[in-house]
Amino acid sequence: ADIPSKGTGLGSSSAFTVGLLHALNAFRGQYVSKAKLGADSCCIEIELCGAPIGRQDQYAAAFGGLNLIEFHFDDSVSVSPLIC
User: Fold this and answer.
1) What is the C-alpha to C-alpha distance for residues 16 and 69, in angstroms, rounded to an integer?
2) Buried b vs exposed e over 39-65: b needs ≥16 C-beta within 10 Å?
3) Which residue of 10, 39, 44, 53 has the lowest C-beta tally within 10 Å?
4) In b/e form, how buried is each residue of 12-35, taking b as 16+ CB within 10 angstroms?
5) How far is CA 15 from CA 55, 56, 72, 73, 83, in A?
6) Do 40 and 30 meet the contact criterion of CB atoms below 8 Å apart?
7) 71, 59 in Cβ contact below 8 A?
């Protein structure tokens, strides 16, 4: 199936990038934290591919679930699970 990647607003390209990175690291026998998956996915999509997007989709895909994601001025990111 095709993955929509041209501004659909569904976060599909970010979910694909996170999943691909996770699979490649698992293939190499390496554990990568959710935070690193989010950061690395941002680097690929924003810096390497030059996509004019935010970082929220990558972190949402990397962490899963319902979270409060805060982006700070020093480029750090805080993720806190929201328990209902």
Assistant:
1) 20
2) bbbbebbeeeeeeebebebbbbbbbee
3) 10
4) bbbbebbeebbeeeeeeeeebebe
5) 12, 11, 22, 24, 23
6) no
7) no
Q: Give catalytic residue positions.
A: 57
The residue with greater pLDDT, 5 or 48, is 48
Q: Cα separation of 83 and 28, whole Å? A: 33
> How does pLDDT run across 35-78, given as a tens digit for each residue?
999 999 999 999 999 888 889 999 999 999 999 999 999 999 99
How many angstroms separate the most distant Cα atoms in the chain? 39
Say if residue 72 is exposed, middle or buried (CB neighbours under 10 Å; 0-12, 13-18, 19+).
Answer: exposed
Alpha helix positions (H), the chain: 12-27, 34-42, 56-63
